[in-house]
Design brief:
The protein is of the alpha/beta class and 131 residues long. It has five helices and five strands; from the N terminus they run βαβαβαβαβα. The protein has a five-stranded parallel sheet, sandwiched between helices. The radius of gyration is 13 Å and the shape is globular. The two termini are 17 Å apart.
């Protein structure tokens, strides 16, 4: 993404294989994965202790949903860059997450190149909006 300064990323996904897959993608995009979590409660705690530039957050997780974690983080950090991860989200859930401040969505069924493209475009738009 930026050869000079690696964006720091927190990946929150309850499925180990998906988390490893996303970590490999983010590292191939010159990002530094600074943390990983398996539920929304740990996501919130790690977000505020690690202060990543980017959060990839699964919607459906145990303990605390991604939607609840999104709302909690955005309440305290309105400019947080959070992309939701989903396999089969209904239109209402997607709209709710956008209203809560999600920057975008990554569908788990996309190809590696499509995932990278979505992340790049969303990150670029976010960076331009906050400057």
């Amino acid at each position: 993404m930026n050869p000079k300064k690696k964006p720091k990323v927190l990946i929150v996904e309850d499925e180990d294989h998906v988390r490893r897959f996303l970590k490999a993608i983010m590292e191939s995009m010159n990002c530094e994965v600074v943390g990983e979590a398996k539920n929304g409660k740990d996501a919130v705690a790690q977000y505020f202790s690690l202060n990543p530039h980017m959060l990839l957050l699964d919607i459906n997780m145990p303990v605390k949903s991604g939607k609840k974690a999104l709302a909690e983080i955005r309440q305290k950090r309105p400019n947080a860059f959070i992309m939701m991860i989903t396999s089969l989200a209904d239109k209402e859930t997607i709209e709710d997450c956008i209203q809560l401040g999600a920057a975008g969505f990554i569908r788990k069924d996309l190809s590696i190149d499509e995932i990278k493209d979505v992340i790049r475009k969303t990150w670029r738009a976010y960076r331009e909006a906050i400057q």
